[in-house]
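STRUCTURE:
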C-alpha cells in the first residue's frame, strides 16, 4: 500500500479526516510566507492588541468584556465585514480548556477561510494565548496542520502547500 497523508476538510464546523496518497517530497513544501494567515486569540485579556492584529489579518477572538470593547472599536473604524481583516468573537464554555477551544474553533475557522470559501485558502493559523503541548499537537495533526513555530504569545501553524504537477 502506498504511503498516505491525512487531509482535513472543515464541513459544518467539524474536522473531517480523509486519507489520500502522499505527494512526493518534491511536491510538498511549507510556504516561506503565508498568502492568507488567520489569527485565533484564546486570551480573554488580549484587548487593545486586537486592534493592530485585526488590521493585518482576520482574527477570531475569545469573547470577553476586554476583547468585546476592542472588537467594537475595530468595527466602528472599519464597519464593512471582511475575511481579510477584522475580528469575529466566539463564545466558549467556562469549563472548556484552551485545547478544547482550539479543537472547536479550528474547524469553524476553516469553514470560513478554507478552500471552499476563500481563494487563496487559509495557510497559516496564528494562535495567541496557548502554548503548544501534546493535546494541541494532536488537534493540529488531526486537522492537517504541518509545521509549528513557537512565538512569545503562542504559536503559528502552517499547512503544507501541495504542488500538483500538470498532466
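SEQUENCE:
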Amino acid at each position: 500500500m502506498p504511503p498516505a497523508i491525512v487531509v482535513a476538510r472543515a464541513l459544518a464546523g467539524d474536522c473531517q479526516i480523509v486519507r489520500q496518497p502522499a505527494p512526493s517530497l518534491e511536491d510538498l513544501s511549507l510556504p516561506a510566507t503565508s498568502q492568507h494567515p488567520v489569527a485565533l486569540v484564546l486570551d480573554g485579556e488580549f484587548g487593545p492588541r486586537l486592534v493592530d492584529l485585526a488590521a493585518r489579518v482576520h482574527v477570531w477572538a475569545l469573547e470577553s468584556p476586554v476583547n468585546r470593547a476592542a472588537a467594537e472599536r475595530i468595527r466602528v473604524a472599519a464597519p464593512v465585514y471582511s475575511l481579510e481583516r477584522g475580528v469575529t468573537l466566539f463564545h466558549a464554555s467556562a469549563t472548556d480548556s484552551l485545547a478544547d477551544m482550539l479543537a472547536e474553533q479550528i474547524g469553524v475557522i476553516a469553514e470560513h477561510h478554507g478552500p471552499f470559501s476563500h481563494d487563496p485558502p487559509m495557510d497559516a493559523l496564528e494562535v495567541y494565548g496557548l502554548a503548544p503541548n501534546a493535546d494541541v499537537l494532536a488537534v493540529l495533526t488531526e486537522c492537517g496542520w504541518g509545521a509549528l513555530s513557537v512565538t512569545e504569545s503562542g504559536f503559528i501553524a502552517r499547512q503544507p502547500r501541495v504542488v500538483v504537477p500538470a498532466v
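REMARK: The first helix runs from residue 49 to 56.
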